[in-house]
Specification:
This protein is of the alpha+beta class. The chain is globular. It has a three-stranded antiparallel sheet. Strands 2-3 form a two-stranded antiparallel sheet. Helices cover about 50% and strands about 15% of the residues.
Length: about 120
């Protein structure tokens, strides 16, 4: 098994964080991890009412890990993930809360738009 790469806090960049969170699935995964005390990858097989294949999920977690947003530890056959919010907050104060607030506002707007959308005759 290959070792997991976790960048040092000095190697984490704003650009890397923004790139990792630019994908809506990764942003949703990170938002969920940020409010929990950690979770295994299998907790995210369904994200935003979409089924996510395990192979795709692995790629999302790798992107979050390589950006320095999460720390992953192997526990048997599972991978336990937790955020590095406290470390990142020290390096870039206010960055993650601002991104997460914008993510929540956008998700709420999408939900309101979906509720307003009339159902088609085929539904």
């Amino acid at each position: 098994m290959r070792p997991l790469i976790h960048p040092s806090i000095e190697d984490i960049t704003v650009e890397g964080i923004l790139h990792a969170l630019s994908d809506p699935v990764r942003a949703a995964i990170y938002a969920e991890l940020a409010v929990s005390s950690g979770a295994t990858c299998s907790n995210f097989l369904k994200v935003s009412d979409r089924d996510i294949p395990k192979s795709t999920l692995s790629q999302h977690f790798r992107a979050l890990r390589e950006a320095g947003l999460i720390r992953s530890e192997r526990q048997g056959v599972e991978m336990r993930n937790s955020t590095r919010c406290a470390e990142i907050e020290q390096r870039f104060p206010g960055l993650l809360p601002a991104i997460m607030k914008a993510h929540q506002a956008q998700a709420a707007g999408r939900m309101r738009a979906a509720k307003r959308k009339p159902k088609s005759a085929a539904d």
